[in-house]
Protein backbone atom coordinates (compact mmCIF):
# COMPACT_ATOMS: atom_id res chain seq x y z
CA UNK A 1 0.00 0.00 0.00
CA UNK A 2 1.19 3.46 -0.87
CA UNK A 3 1.64 6.04 1.89
CA UNK A 4 0.83 9.57 0.76
CA UNK A 5 1.01 12.77 2.72
CA UNK A 6 -2.25 14.56 3.04
CA UNK A 7 -2.86 16.20 6.42
CA UNK A 8 -5.00 13.35 7.62
CA UNK A 9 -3.12 10.35 6.27
CA UNK A 10 -0.22 10.88 8.64
CA UNK A 11 2.40 8.13 8.75
CA UNK A 12 0.41 5.31 10.33
CA UNK A 13 -2.64 5.32 8.06
CA UNK A 14 -2.75 3.58 4.69
CA UNK A 15 -3.82 5.96 1.98
CA UNK A 16 -4.40 6.26 -1.73
CA UNK A 17 -5.20 8.98 -4.21
CA UNK A 18 -8.80 9.79 -5.04
CA UNK A 19 -10.29 8.59 -8.31
CA UNK A 20 -13.17 10.14 -10.24
CA UNK A 21 -16.39 8.53 -9.06
CA UNK A 22 -15.05 7.49 -5.64
CA UNK A 23 -17.62 7.45 -2.85
CA UNK A 24 -15.96 8.99 0.21
CA UNK A 25 -16.99 9.32 3.84
CA UNK A 26 -15.79 12.00 6.24
CA UNK A 27 -13.96 10.00 8.91
CA UNK A 28 -12.00 10.10 12.10
CA UNK A 29 -8.83 8.02 11.94
CA UNK A 30 -7.76 5.64 14.72
CA UNK A 31 -5.06 6.88 17.07
CA UNK A 32 -5.16 10.40 15.61
CA UNK A 33 -6.89 13.64 16.47
CA UNK A 34 -7.74 14.50 12.90
CA UNK A 35 -10.40 13.89 10.26
CA UNK A 36 -10.48 13.51 6.52
CA UNK A 37 -11.93 11.29 3.84
CA UNK A 38 -11.93 7.52 3.74
CA UNK A 39 -13.10 5.24 0.94
CA UNK A 40 -16.61 3.87 1.47
CA UNK A 41 -15.60 0.55 -0.10
CA UNK A 42 -12.29 0.36 1.81
CA UNK A 43 -12.85 1.07 5.52
CA UNK A 44 -9.76 2.50 7.19
CA UNK A 45 -8.24 3.65 3.88
CA UNK A 46 -7.56 7.39 3.85
CA UNK A 47 -8.19 8.99 0.48
CA UNK A 48 -5.98 11.94 -0.41
CA UNK A 49 -7.25 14.62 -2.75
CA UNK A 50 -5.20 16.76 -5.10
CA UNK A 51 -5.88 20.51 -4.96
CA UNK A 52 -8.66 21.25 -7.43
CA UNK A 53 -10.52 17.96 -6.92
CA UNK A 54 -14.27 18.61 -7.05
CA UNK A 55 -16.72 16.85 -4.73
CA UNK A 56 -20.48 16.65 -4.31
CA UNK A 57 -21.87 15.81 -0.88
CA UNK A 58 -25.01 13.68 -0.79
CA UNK A 59 -26.61 16.29 1.49
CA UNK A 60 -25.72 19.80 2.56
CA UNK A 61 -22.29 19.59 4.23
CA UNK A 62 -22.03 20.15 7.97
CA UNK A 63 -19.11 20.97 10.25
CA UNK A 64 -18.88 20.44 13.98
CA UNK A 65 -20.43 23.13 16.12
CA UNK A 66 -20.73 23.10 19.90
CA UNK A 67 -24.41 24.14 19.81
CA UNK A 68 -25.50 21.65 17.13
CA UNK A 69 -26.61 18.96 19.59
CA UNK A 70 -28.23 21.47 21.95
CA UNK A 71 -30.28 23.21 19.26
CA UNK A 72 -30.61 20.84 16.27
CA UNK A 73 -33.37 22.86 14.59
CA UNK A 74 -31.13 25.93 14.45
CA UNK A 75 -28.77 24.11 12.01
CA UNK A 76 -25.58 25.18 13.74
CA UNK A 77 -22.62 23.95 11.70
CA UNK A 78 -24.52 23.98 8.42
CA UNK A 79 -22.25 25.04 5.57
CA UNK A 80 -25.10 25.79 3.19
CA UNK A 81 -23.72 23.99 0.14
CA UNK A 82 -23.14 20.52 -1.32
CA UNK A 83 -20.49 21.22 -3.98
CA UNK A 84 -16.87 21.83 -3.01
CA UNK A 85 -13.34 22.00 -4.36
CA UNK A 86 -10.38 20.71 -2.37
CA UNK A 87 -7.56 23.16 -1.67
CA UNK A 88 -4.58 23.73 0.60
CA UNK A 89 -4.59 26.72 2.97
CA UNK A 90 -2.24 28.10 5.66
CA UNK A 91 0.75 26.73 3.77
CA UNK A 92 3.23 29.07 5.44
CA UNK A 93 2.59 27.53 8.85
CA UNK A 94 3.80 24.10 9.86
CA UNK A 95 1.83 23.53 13.05
CA UNK A 96 -1.68 23.54 11.58
CA UNK A 97 -3.84 21.59 9.16
CA UNK A 98 -3.77 22.61 5.51
CA UNK A 99 -6.46 20.44 3.87
CA UNK A 100 -9.68 22.36 3.27
CA UNK A 101 -12.76 22.49 1.07
CA UNK A 102 -13.95 25.64 -0.65
CA UNK A 103 -17.69 25.35 -1.10
CA UNK A 104 -19.76 26.78 -3.95
CA UNK A 105 -21.03 29.55 -1.65
CA UNK A 106 -17.45 30.70 -0.92
CA UNK A 107 -17.10 29.18 2.57
CA UNK A 108 -13.74 27.53 3.26
CA UNK A 109 -13.76 24.76 5.87
CA UNK A 110 -10.85 22.66 7.14
CA UNK A 111 -11.44 18.94 6.66
CA UNK A 112 -10.79 18.42 10.36
CA UNK A 113 -13.92 20.46 11.12
CA UNK A 114 -16.30 18.36 9.00
CA UNK A 115 -18.76 16.21 10.90
CA UNK A 116 -17.89 12.49 10.53
CA UNK A 117 -20.17 10.19 8.53
CA UNK A 118 -20.99 12.50 5.61
CA UNK A 119 -20.88 11.02 2.10
CA UNK A 120 -19.34 12.74 -0.90
CA UNK A 121 -18.60 11.67 -4.46
CA UNK A 122 -15.49 12.71 -6.38
CA UNK A 123 -16.90 14.49 -9.42
CA UNK A 124 -13.72 15.56 -11.14
CA UNK A 125 -9.99 15.44 -10.61
CA UNK A 126 -7.86 18.51 -11.38
CA UNK A 127 -7.25 18.90 -15.10
CA UNK A 128 -3.63 20.04 -14.89
CA UNK A 129 -2.33 16.95 -13.11
CA UNK A 130 -2.74 13.25 -13.73
CA UNK A 131 -2.89 10.61 -10.99
CA UNK A 132 0.91 10.74 -10.57
CA UNK A 133 0.90 14.49 -10.01
CA UNK A 134 2.74 15.10 -13.31
CA UNK A 135 1.68 17.46 -16.04
CA UNK A 136 -0.56 15.94 -18.67
CA UNK A 137 1.19 14.97 -21.89
CA UNK A 138 -0.81 17.50 -23.93
CA UNK A 139 0.40 20.33 -21.67
CA UNK A 140 4.03 19.25 -21.93
CA UNK A 141 3.83 19.40 -25.72
CA UNK A 142 2.59 23.00 -25.85
CA UNK A 143 4.96 25.58 -27.33
CA UNK A 144 6.91 27.44 -24.66
CA UNK A 145 5.14 30.74 -25.41
CA UNK A 146 1.69 29.16 -24.87
CA UNK A 147 2.85 27.56 -21.61
CA UNK A 148 4.33 30.87 -20.38
CA UNK A 149 1.10 32.76 -21.17
CA UNK A 150 -1.01 30.11 -19.43
CA UNK A 151 1.18 30.29 -16.32
CA UNK A 152 1.12 34.10 -16.35
CA UNK A 153 -2.71 34.11 -16.54
CA UNK A 154 -2.89 31.54 -13.74
CA UNK A 155 -0.74 33.78 -11.52
CA UNK A 156 2.42 31.64 -11.35
How does this structure look, described?
This protein has a 9-stranded mixed sheet with strand order 1-4-3-2-9-5-6-7-8, with no helix packed on it. The two termini are 34 Å apart. Mean pLDDT is 75; it is low at 129-156. The protein is mostly beta strands and 156 residues long. It has helices at 137-140, 144-154; strands at 15-17, 23-28, 35-39, 42-48, 54-57, 83-88, 99-103, 108-110, 119-124. Helix content is 10%, strand content 29%.
What is the fold's blueprint, element by element?
Blueprint: E1 15-17, E2 23-28, E3 35-39, E4 42-48, E5 54-57, E6 83-88, E7 99-103, E8 108-110, E9 119-124, H1 137-140, H2 144-154
Parallel strand pairs: 1-4
Antiparallel strand pairs: 2-3, 2-9, 3-4, 5-6, 5-9, 6-7, 7-8
Query: What fraction of the residues are assigned to beta strands by DSSP?
Result: 25-35%
Given helix and strand content, the structural type is mainly beta
Helix content: under 10%
Give the mean pLDDT: 75
The poorly predicted ranges are 129-156
Radius of gyration: 17 Å
Query: Which strand order does the major sheet show?
Result: 1-4-3-2-9-5-6-7-8
Sheet with the most strands, sense and barrel status: 9 strands, mixed
For the secondary structure, the number of strands is: 9
Q: How many H/I helical runs?
A: 2
Amino acid sequence: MELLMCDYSLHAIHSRRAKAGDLLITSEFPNTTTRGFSAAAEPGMAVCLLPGTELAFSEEAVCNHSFATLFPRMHFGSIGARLARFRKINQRTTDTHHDALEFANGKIVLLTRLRPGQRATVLQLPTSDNADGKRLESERRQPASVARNAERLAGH
